[in-house]
Design brief:
By secondary structure, the chain is of the alpha+beta class. The chain is 22% helix and 27% strand. The structure holds fe (ii) ion (FE2). Fe (ii) ion binds next to loops.
Length: 447
């Protein structure tokens, strides 16, 4: 019991530190009593792992099990036409205790379906009548409006910096909303959330810090999670509502023209996963203007050796002309030129990322052939990467913790011939390529 009390105090202290780091001290301090209430909802987050135009998971934690866990929700924008649309209550379908004895903590996942695309909902999370503050989330659009996604990775250490990066995301999302710029609809996190994925207290701290990605108005920034090499174990699944195991690869549509594919470098890369990737790419390429992949261990690393994706996935990215690949793990800033067949090629695939959401930064190897200036850009600083997708281009901007812009680039939309399903090669030995060949064709016209 003493250990649990200590851990609750530690989480509480974490929240106060996070409040200070974010400059939101009054609001956070006002939340303090919830830490003394074992049924006070905390750790709120919105998770996108399936069709985010109409589906989202709202998740939270409590320090005691409780009996009834619900989400009360109402449409706020656009204004609902009927009272029926206005109010809705959904019971959390997936509740349980996080595994591990170091801390008593219970997860609650409300899997919301039949949502309206491009719609903002106001919600409160309730456990046995104990309610969160009012929160908001917005579903992915169904129309072809420009959207932005933040890519970032590696928040496992450097906790003060992690909180500052989270606060930066919240600020950027709020500013985009206020200014009418393309909305920042999600955070794609490329993995390494915590130092040791089997230690629940570290996840509790990460989840508490993640609250800072919500705006001061409680507007949640949905997360599209990928598993990193530090995120081993079942807690990752319990935090993000995945089934038990280590599959953790999936794809979501962020609007009608962006297919976002999340891969898992922390399980078997070849075989089933590579076959699935080939099918995804073959299906998505002709249907979507933008096809993006994310995963943790880089295929074109700036610091370490290449992951297995270099052998199994890169040939598929090139075959199907993926628009962008986002990688983590190196703790540095990276943007390669478009690459194909181990050369710089204007029709190739660019690789960005390497992770800077708090973790200490390393020095990239700027002498590698794919990292040399002026075609590439590398650096070392806490950062996130803002990706904006519109009808003409994919815009890329690296924003440092200070708010300073470190790098900007844009890739034009690929011409139609690069967005068609590739012609079948007569002789191929790659199982992935064979799988792609069998993937279904699509009838949706190129846009
Ligand atoms: Fe890593």
């Amino acid at each position: 019991m003493c250990g649990r009390t200590f851990d609750r105090q530690r989480v509480f202290l974490t929240l106060l530190l996070a409040a200070v780091a974010s400059g939101r001290t009054p609001a956070r301090a006002a939340d303090a009593p919830r830490e003394l209430d074992p049924l006070a909802p905390r750790h709120w987050r919105c998770i996108w792992t399936e069709n985010p135009a109409t589906v989202a998971t709202l998740s939270w934690s409590t320090a005691a099990a409780g009996r009834q866990h619900i989400v009360k929700m109402a449409v706020v924008d656009p204004a609902p036409a009927t009272d029926q649309e206005r109010q809705r209550t959904v019971a959390a379908q997936h509740n349980g205790r996080f595994t591990g004895d170091d801390l008593e903590l219970h997860y609650h996942h409300a899997r919301l379906a039949d949502l309206q695309p491009g719609t903002t909902y106001e919600v409160t999370l309730e456990s046995d009548g104990h309610a969160s503050p009012p929160l908001r989330f917005t579903t992915a659009p169904a129309d072809d409006r420009p959207v932005s996604v933040i890519f970032g990775a590696d928040s496992r250490s450097g906790l003060v910096e992690r909180r500052q990066m989270n606060a930066l995301m919240a600020r950027m999302a709020a500013e985009a909303r206020a200014a009418g710029r393309p909305p920042i609809v999600a955070l794609a996190h490329g993995g390494d959330y915590v130092y040791d994925g089997n230690e629940l207290s570290l996840w509790a701290q990460w989840m508490a810090d993640h609250e800072l990605t919500a705006g001061v108005d409680g507007h949640l920034l949905p997360i599209i999670p990928a598993r990193g090499n530090h995120d081993h174990g079942e807690h990752f699944n319990q935090v993000f509502d995945f089934p038990a195991g280590d599959r953790n690869y999936y794809a979501v549509d962020v609007g009608p023209q962006l297919r976002w594919i999340t891969l898992n470098t922390e399980t078997v890369v070849a075989g089933k996963q590579t076959k699935w990737l080939a099918e995804q790419l073959a299906d998505a390429r002709p249907q979507y203007r933008w096809v993006v992949a994310q995963y943790h261990r880089p295929s074109f690393p700036a610091v370490k050796l290449p992951g297995r994706g270099l052998v199994h996935w890169v040939p598929l990215f090139e075959q199907f002309n993926a628009d962008l690949v986002c990688e983590g793990d190196g703790h540095t800033i990276k943007r390669t030129p478009r690459l194909r067949a181990n050369k710089i090629d204007p029709t190739g695939v660019p690789y960005i990322g390497e992770g800077g959401l708090g973790v200490g930064q390393r020095t990239p190897n700027a002498e590698l052939w794919y990292l040399r200036a002026p075609d590439a850009k590398v650096g070392s600083d806490h950062h996130l990467q803002l990706l904006t997708f519109d009808r003409e281009k994919l815009s890329y901007r690296v924003v440092l913790m200070s708010g300073e812009v470190f790098d900007e680039h844009a890739w034009p939309v690929r011409p139609p011939e690069q967005r068609a399903v590739p012609a079948v090669e007569e002789e191929t030995e790659a199982p992935a390529a064979q799988a792609a060949f069998r993937a279904p064709a699509t009838a949706k016209a190129l846009k």
